[in-house]
Amino acid sequence: MIHDPVKRRLLRTVAGLAVCGTSLARGLLTPTPRQSAGPFYPVERPLDDDNDLTRVRGQQGIASGEITDLSGHVRDVSGRPIRDARIEIWQCDAHGRYRHPRERGAAPIDAAFQGFGHTHTDVLGGYRFRTIKPVSYPGRTPHIHIAVFTSAVDHPFVTQLYNRAEPGNTDDFLFNRIPVERRHLVLADFRAAEGADVEYRAGFDIILHPQEGTPAS
User: Fold this and answer.
1) pTM
2) Per-residue confidence at 187, pLDDT binned at 50, 70, 90?
3) Where is 8: in which H helix or E strand?
4) 140, CA 20 to 30 Å: which among 146, 162, 187, 201?
């Protein structure tokens, strides 16, 4: 057993690089890291749970926050698109509040923000959401929760999307649980969208391992 923490970290890094090197040699993509769903997955899904989280049916106006066009593709490790997968996202509103009975934030809830939404991938594995740029809440760096459901398995693949430019990532306990060499796989660039009906655009591709929801070939 190795007791030197520096040596242990070095061996873990070497092992991780070896796995990535093997995947590249086989022409395979590296799977997106799995993360926890967190405590605030909706107990009851809202009646309005489409892919536009910035408007709520029956409410006037749009959500507070920086409106963001989030899109990407779901593929398997061979790069093949996964069609007809259900994708769910959920996040706190611009005031740091989740739509959950256990959430006890003091700020007012933004009634114009859906908080949760879903869509299905198209024939190319593509998906798209209109939401807000994620913000922090006590104890966490800004993030968006993502769940992918496929017909291949009876449980969803769950991960979290982080803003690459957010300095708080380095202190986030869940982000730091991801091996260093795989952290880039959960980072997205939020780029200003000048002259558009949104303020930011972000792209985030999800790569599923066969054991995490990919249809068998």
Assistant:
1) 0.84
2) very high
3) helix 5-25
4) 201
